UniProtKB/TrEMBL annotation:
Organism superkingdom: Bacteria
Signal sequence annotation: 1-22
Provenance organism: Aquisalinus flavus
Name of this chain's protein: ATPase
Record key words, sorted: Signal
Amino acid sequence: MNRPISVLCLTAAAALIGTAHAEVVSQADNGFALAHTVSVEAEPGAVWTALINPASWWNPAHSWSGDSTNFSLDPAAGGCFCETWQNEEGQPYSVEHLRVAALIPGNQLTLRGALGPLQTYGVDGALTFLIVGQGDGTSDVMVTYNVGGYLDGMDQWAGPVDGVIAEQAERLARLINTGSPDTE
């Protein structure tokens, strides 16, 4: 698919999401779809710069190491959204959280994989950030996470995962709008 058609399709999909701040779009035995929109006081380029630096906004409570500065993102197709650190004895630890599937700088980042405890099950997901400039120095960031596969009781995971994704989107927005992802 060429870039203009891809952008058009993503923009149309974003329009279908609407202006709702957060939503479990659907949930079933075989998966769920989540959608969030946050508004930020920045042009798409500045949003992009923050987005591809998850160490500056991802909540350390949702990390394996307890320290978000251990996160990195290689912004290229196939690139890793990873976490690396050493334990007290100096042994290296690492986690691949997601992998870059599609990247249009300043516009779209799609990552593939299962986050957190979902990694241990037969599921996969697509986490997409779509940045839409509003022409007035602000942007909307539309975040969708579509997860599918086999996990007994998967529909029960939609709410908790939705909470995590909502929190990450809000932290990204706070970082851009205030200079800090934290509420305090």
